[in-house]
Write a structure and sequence with these properties.
This protein is of the alpha+beta class. Helices cover 50% and strands 15% of the residues. InterPro entries: IrrE_HExxH (IPR010359).
Amino acid sequence: MAVSAAQDMEERQDLQDQRDALSSIDWPERPTVQSLGEAIGRLRGMRVVIAPIPEGIRSAEVNGLTVSVGSAAKVYYDPRLAPLNCTQTILHELAHVLHGDVCAERSAASYRTTFDTPQERRAELTATRLMLELNRRIRGSDLLDFLSGRAARAHRP
């Protein structure tokens, strides 16, 4: 399938938007998913709270969702997910806040199920980039160190 010039330009703009969004984060000195959420919230003028999806409304189709009311954004995740999937889900939802998909100017909700829209694909790609950067900052390693296991060996007691 050939990519049109318009699609190519849109993809390039999306990549630039992601770079701009990631470079605008004032990363915490000791980054965690929670402190990263707080930093993204400050950047967007919101208070971000991360919590499990309440048991009574959990669904197999929804891994995460974000609800914003006023200047508060509540990022929910399914605690039954594997740890890596859970982190990716939270970062996906934080990417929506980072990109302004969820903002203080209007009440909104977004939920993570599939990636069939440009907004969802952008959030997923941004979440992956956030995860890599978070790992690099926590472990002081790059992707190759992480994938090869060198980063884990370097931080053993």
